[in-house]
Amino acid sequence: MKKTTFLRLSAVLMLILSGVVAIAAGSSRETHLLNFGWKFRMGDVENADRRDFNDESWRSLDLPHDFQFEMPWDSLESRGRGFKPMGTAWYRKTFQADSTWKGRRILLDFGGILLHGDVYVNGIPAGATDYGYVGFESDITPLIDFDRPNIIAVRASTGEKSGSRWYTGGGIFRDVNIIVKDSVSIARHGLFISTPEVSKEKAVVNLQVEIEGIKMSDRPLKVDVTIRNPEGDIVARTAMDVPRHSRRDREEVALPAVSVSDPELWSCANPNLYTAEATLSDGNRVIDNISGRFGIRKIEFSKEEGFKLNGEKVFLKGIAIHHDLGVLGAAAYETAIRRMMDRIKEFGFNHIRTSHNPYSESFLRIADEKGILVVDELYDKWSNTVAWAGRRPWTDMWHENLTEWVKRDRNHPSVILWSLGNELQFQEERCGIPGTNDWGVTTYKLMSTLLKRHDPTRLTTVAMYPARAGGIVKHDPDFRKEENKIAPELAQITDIASFNYCWDDYQAYLRHNPDMIIYQSEAVTNELTAPYFGMDRDRMVGLAYWGAIEYWGESNAWPKKGWMYSFFNHSLEPFPQAYLMKATFSDEPLVRIGIVDSEGEAELWNDIIVGQKMISSHWNRKEGSINTVYTYTNADEVELFVNGKSCGIKKNPDLPTGRNVIRWDSIAYHPGSITAVARKDGKEIAHHKIETTGKPVKLIAETENPAWEANGRDLQYVRIYAVDSKGRKVPTASGNVRFDLSGEATLLATDNGCHTSDELFRNDHIDLYKGFAMGILRSTREHGDVVLKASCSGLKPVTVRFRTKASAGTSGTR
Predict the structure, then answer these.
(1) What is the phi-psi region of residue 83: left when phi exceeds 0, alpha when psi lies from -120 to 50, beta otherwise?
(2) Is omega for the bond preceding 271 within 30 degrees of 0, making it cis?
(3) What are residue 637's DSSP bridge partners?
(4) Measured between alpha carbons, how far is residue 183 from residues 46, 191, 210, 237, 612 in Å?
(5) For residues 291 and 23, what is the distance between their CA atoms, to the nearest angstrom?
(6) Which of 612, 614, 613, 617 shows the shortest CA–CA distance to 631?
(7) Fewer beta carbons under 10 A from the terminal one: N or C of the chain?
(8) Strand partners, 153
(9) 254-285, pLDDT tens digit by residue?
(10) In terms of Cα–Cα distance, which of 739, 746, 750 is closest to 800?
């Protein structure tokens, strides 16, 4: 072997060991993750873009990062933006360019920067994002210095208060990569995979590969694509020559379709994923290659059956939430995303609407793996002036964002429907291109046409504000007139008619427009099961409960830091109402007791009554108190017992507005136990018992991630509970929990699920809330032992020991 060949192989091996995300054998493409070793400074620092700026005193951190969530709570700041100040911050990263990159294109890829971002390389502007939910790449080839270290500087801003109606976060909240490839290569998001024909016996796979850098080229280029099944076996191949002498810089090469016999279909229950490996070659030399996962599945929408997946009726049972991940803020940690999806699936949900902006690409990749059905949303309003998060006018950039978004997401089998906007049809200034004066109809047609240029395989929709045709809103006296119960003009022409709330109007809408295919894009949690049972589930698509998980921002008043009318708190601890949804969405026999702590509150929000009773599942009440109790069940009837004495038997109501909810009034508290026994056809099928606990005596820990990887990115959630001498959780326990950590991990955040807390969740201690606290640990890039001790005055502490597992990606690349 020649010495130069040995050195090159050694260099490739070192890159792999140092964390290169994807290097295929024979490929000239390299992808280097840049998430580690950044410098950070809060504030708009003068000259921070300059190459010679001294950042030694700046804080060191790893990405992803949300600087706004680290800022103090402030009751004078915007309640919509989560009582957090607006701000600007700078990030800087030093890296050395490899000499093997010379003569190739060097691209800097950002998954997103909130809410706006400007990028500099060696002091020279190198790219920007004006709508930070959408990623971008910059060609930094002419800016690279091969003789000394290079500097990336990023200015991130939350924008003005008026730029969003909810908490956005701020900073580099998604991955950053350097991509090195040939000047002739596969374009950004250049692989497009679809499955136009699907049956249990055979599937047809269409493949298109976009090639760039070939204008007027005479090179004999060829594209090859190999399909591998979920087990990694090759099941199909196809190839096509790239056109020569093209007058365009880019060409979309449609390859001959391939057939896959006996396909393993993608579904919610079995989310099987295939891989397409695309290679661009010049004779025997590989120029570029990429791979992408996809699912073989068939989606259908119709007015007769709503939504079908692989020929079977599926009703969407979903949530619509903003993108933050509890005390991690907007930072897109994959472990946190997986945790959230696992939790909602556990409770019977199968669907997420990404309100009201594109989520991270990792979110969709994980949805593919988990079998979650996604309505992928691009925007809130279509306006240059109202509720617009962009730094430039919406009319100047909507087409840029749309193209990047749809090309990025179109291969994900989890994405079943594109949503172009939210809460349209009640103010003309929020409805698109000025001067069209048609409630967004023309704007929608333009957007949908452009989208289908890049993805003709899916339908499009827009979520409607609860209004009628003509912009008649709920507080208008004409709203309830029978002759005005007509769907908004925009909903009448979208592929799918999406309505926020107003489920009791859908039949009236259908009488006027019988061809509409209806999806309830938002349902209120305080109506419990009524929005679900009130729909025609045989003919309609499904629903998404708004704010089913607590999120930051859109608070109605201090000290609430965000939305609190939910089924899960921001730590993903379930409220009793979550078990109602599980009883409704799954076939598992279930009964759950909830005791009313207070009637909570109700208010008018977007012309809809929202709110929530404060309900908990514990039997540590005030002696002699009289309580209202609910039992949530999918059984025929429930018998309730207090200390073994029956309080009676009640039937499950058959009305849509009360199904699966049984109310028990005037239940006297006596220490001991309360038990619900659920029966079907007279036989017990489930029961739930709550006992009065003793005083808390110790802490216990519950961990979640048995395969915790030492890749510098994986998280471990450690839930801490106070328990009595019998090991029963004590929800009334209080005290301050301190976390002491040693080993190959850092304490990323602490949490207790309290959405009204003024704590910043970045300390090594936190108060118990309802007997609960949690530590979130981030692994280092070295595998090894981790020891976490949680202690609280007056309680026996708990110690948890881990050993993180070695990972192929344990180190950053640069």
Answers:
(1) left
(2) no
(3) 651, 679
(4) 36, 17, 14, 26, 57
(5) 11
(6) 617
(7) N
(8) 92, 120
(9) 999 999 999 999 999 999 999 999 999 998 89
(10) 739
Q: Of the candidates 516, 353, 483, 502, which has an alpha carbon nearest to the alpha carbon of residue 426?
A: 502
pLDDT tens digit sequence for 665-715: 999 999 999 999 999 999 999 999 999 999 999 999 999 999 999 999 999
**Beta strand pairing status for 715-723 and 736-743?**
unpaired
On the question of pLDDT at 85 being above 60, the answer is yes
pLDDT digits (tens, 9 = 90+) for 102-118: 999 999 999 999 999 99
pTM of the entire structure?
Answer: 0.95
Q: What is the mean pLDDT of residues 14-32?
A: 50
Pairing of strands 785-792, 736-743: antiparallel
Determine contact, residues 635/685, Cβ cutoff 8 Å: yes
Q: Could you write out the DSSP letters of every residue in 138-199?
A: EE-GGG--SSS-EEEEEEEE---GGG-SS----B--S-EEEEEE-SSEEEEEEEEEEEEEE-
Q: What is the average pLDDT across 613-641? A: 97
Asked if the model's pLDDT at residue 341 lies above 80, the reply is: yes
State the Rg of the chain over Cα: 28
Angle of CA points 706, 709, 711, to nearest 5°: 165
Span 771-790, mean pLDDT? 98
694 or 425, which is more confident: 694
Mean pLDDT score, 791-804: 98
User: Where is pLDDT greater, at 432 or 9?
Assistant: 432
Contacts of 87 (CB under 8 A, 6+ apart): 42, 43, 67, 68, 71, 157, 158, 170
- Largest pairwise CA distance in the chain: 89
Rounded to an integer, what distance in angstroms lies between the CA atom of residue 434 and that of residue 50? 40
pLDDT surpassing 70 at residue 805: yes
For residues 255 and 205, give the distance between their C-alpha atoms in angstroms, rounded to a whole number: 10
Q: What is the C-alpha separation between 768 and 696, in angstroms, rounded?
A: 12
SS3 564: coil
Between CA 480 and CA 756 the distance in angstroms is 37
Q: Is beta strand 496-500 parallel, antiparallel or unpaired with respect to 518-523?
A: parallel
User: How far, in Å, CA of 677 to CA of 443, rounded?
Assistant: 55
- What 3-state class would DSSP assign to 266? strand
Residue 381 and residue 423: Cα distance in Å, rounded? 7
Q: Of 261, 110, 281, which Cα lies nearest the Cα of 185? A: 281
Residue 773 has which token pair?
């606290």
Other CB atoms within a 10 A radius of the CB of residue 102 amount to: 11
DSSP letters spanning 74-110 = -TTS-TTTTS----EEEEEEEE---GGGTTSEEEEEE
Tell me how far apart the alpha carbons of residues 97 and 83 are, in angstroms, rounded to a whole number.
Answer: 42
Give the helix/strand (H/E) hosting 267.
none
Q: Are β-strands 626-633 and 661-668 bridged in parallel, bridged antiparallel, or unpaired?
A: antiparallel
Q: DSSP string covering 485-505, please? A: ----TTTTTSSEEEEES-GGG
In contact, 465 and 522? CB cutoff 8 Å: no
pLDDT at residue 773 greater than cutoff 90: yes
Retrieve residue 591's tokens. Answer: 């009964």
- Structure tokens that stand for 307 in this block: 């939504």
Residues with Cβ within 8 Å of 740's Cβ and at least 6 positions away in sequence, in order, are 764, 788, 789, 791
One-letter amino acid at 162 equals S
Q: How far is CA 235 from the centre of its chain?
A: 32
If you search the block for the tokens 């020569």, which residue do you land on?
244
Place of tokens 């850092």: 746
Tokens 């396909």 found at: 263
The mean pLDDT value of the chain amounts to 94
For residue 667, what pLDDT is reported?
98
| DSSP one-letter string for 103-123 | TSEEEEEES--BSEEEEEETT
